[in-house]
Amino acid sequence: MYKVYGSVTSRAFRVLWLLEELGEPYEFIKAGPRSDAVTALNPSGKIPVLQVGDDIIPDSTAIMTYLADKHGKFTYPAGSVARAQQDALTHAVLDELDAVLWTAARHGFILPEEQRVPAVKPSLMWEFARNLDRLADRMVGPFLQGEQMTIADIIATHCLNWAIGAKFPVENEKLSDYAKSMRARDAFKRVRALDGD
Q: Where is the GST C-terminal domain (predicted)?
């Protein structure tokens, strides 16, 4: 059985959501970043961490790629053009949404106070809005890549939810509607319910 270390309010949400979509059994071990349980598995202390038997996989995107490839769902076949396009979308979401939100978080509360530059937030908000519009222009169907949901959709939706919590406006109507439909998925709701356990 898979073991997922992390918290629902972190990028572990992405991994848990994919596991719920896949219908694969897992054990969720609630653990914060740099906790003893996490640091014992991942010296950086970052979450999420996936334990598969004696093997450890850190990083939400690496974990999701492994799970999608292993189970042959929520991904296109390796070596296909569609997979390369999926990977391009995934990296675009990570570079243009996730990284912007992470930078804002670092300067908002993660870095030591003397290292924070709060004045960067308006610039990051502008960049985020511009990048949302670019992503919306790339959407070709009900999901980012058309008719098939992939791990890129899970990462994008997680970022859109993160943006709301971080008070980054999501004013692109196409992506706002897309996020609402993704949040309506049963697997998404099951993971969100884990936060109350």
A: 79-197
Q: What is the pTM for the complete model shown? A: 0.96
Apex CA 155: angle with CA 154 and CA 160, to 5°? 95
pLDDT, one tens digit for every residue, the chain (197 residues): 999 999 999 999 999 999 999 999 999 999 999 999 999 999 999 999 999 999 999 999 999 999 999 999 999 999 999 999 999 999 999 999 999 999 999 999 999 999 999 999 999 999 999 999 999 999 999 999 999 999 999 999 999 999 999 999 999 999 999 999 999 999 999 999 998 65
Helix (H) / strand (E) element for 36: namely helix 36-39
**Type and span of the H or E element at 27:** strand 26-30
Distance separating alpha carbons of residues 116 and 14, to the nearest angstrom: 27
For residue 56, the surrounding DSSP H or E stretch is strand 55-58
Tokens coding 170 = 């999501």
Displacement of CA 161 from its chain's centroid (Å) = 10
> Cα(70)–Cα(56) distance, rounded to whole angstroms?
15
The token pair at 84 is 């390369």
| Distance (Å, whole) CA 57 – CA 41 | 9
